[in-house]
């Protein structure tokens, strides 16, 4: 693990501008086992806005300008909307209410999330694995069928798979959602969404996955002797 977990309240000086920009984008259902809809920058102006957001995030990790300007990095960034109907089964789950599937962003060295809607208890939980379990062995079929609204999905089987999966992990940290809050964590850190939506509500976030080549990484640097 190379990066610490971070929280920054009031991340944007003018969050309403960013939210209005996010609402102006076209949202699509991404392929794969992800909930909700996503929108990416598809024109030069949008790309410029997202690049500036990512610069602000990187300055949290590398505040010295001389180090920052020598970074090389790639990002995959998008705005995400999760609606009540996208996560209803998780919200109504009696054994683990509101918990999403636990996963790591192994393609990302650092993951950042900014909450842009005023939902409470719709944040992100960080986990570690209980001894004797291996989450990588979980069958992804149930997730794919649920998020793609497969008519063949048996909900009893889905809950069984989901709860067996969630029982493998212990909670390490819970970031509550609040408007204009940024959180960040090492991409290898196991995590999952927490969803407390009501019908007709949605959770709007900005998500950015960073692949960074840097002169140093904070946690290894801390451990140097």
Jot down its keywords.
225 residues, globular, six-stranded antiparallel β-sheet, alpha+beta, single chain, Jelly Rolls, 9 strands, 7 helices, three-stranded antiparallel β-sheet
What do you see in this structure?
The structure is a single chain. The protein has 225 residues and is α+β, with helices and mostly antiparallel strands. It has a domain at 6-86 and 105-125 and 173-222: q2cbj1_9rhob like domain (Jelly Rolls, Sandwich). It is built from seven helices and nine strands; from the N terminus they run βαβααβαββααββββα. The protein has helices at 15-24, 44-61, 65-68, 88-91, 141-147, 155-166, 218-222; strands at residues 6-8, 37-39, 72-83, 110-115, 124-129, 169-175, 181-186, 191-193, 202-213. The protein has a six-stranded antiparallel beta sheet with strand order 1-7-4-9-3-2, with helices on one face. It has a three-stranded antiparallel beta sheet with strand order 6-5-8, with no helix packed on it. The longest helix is centred in the first third of the chain and has 18 residues, at 44-61. The radius of gyration is 18 Å and the shape is globular. The relative contact order is 0.28.
């Amino acid at each position: 693990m190379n990066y610490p977990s971070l929280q920054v309240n009031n991340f944007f000086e003018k969050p309403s501008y960013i939210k209005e920009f996010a609402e102006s984008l076209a949202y699509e259902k991404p392929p794969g086992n992800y909930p909700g809809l996503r929108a990416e920058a598809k024109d030069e102006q949008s790309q410029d806005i997202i690049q500036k957001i990512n610069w602000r995030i990187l300055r949290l990790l590398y505040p010295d300008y001389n180090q920052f300007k020598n970074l090389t990095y790639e990002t995959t960034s998008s705005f995400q909307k999760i609606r009540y109907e996208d996560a209803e089964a998780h919200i109504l789950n009696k054994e683990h209410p509101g918990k999403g599937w636990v996963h790591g962003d192994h393609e990302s060295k650092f993951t950042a999330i900014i909450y842009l809607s005023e939902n409470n208890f719709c944040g992100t939980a960080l986990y570690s694995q209980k001894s004797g379990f291996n989450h990588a062995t979980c069958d992804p079929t149930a997730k794919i069928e649920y998020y793609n609204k497969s008519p063949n999905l048996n909900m009893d089987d889905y809950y069984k798979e989901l709860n067996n999966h969630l029982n493998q992990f212990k909670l390490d940290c819970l970031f509550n959602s609040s408007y204009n809050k940024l959180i960040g964590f090492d991409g290898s850190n196991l995590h999952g969404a927490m969803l407390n939506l009501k019908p007709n509500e949605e959770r709007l976030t900005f998500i950015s996955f960073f692949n960074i080549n840097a002169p140093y990484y904070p946690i290894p640097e801390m451990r140097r002797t």
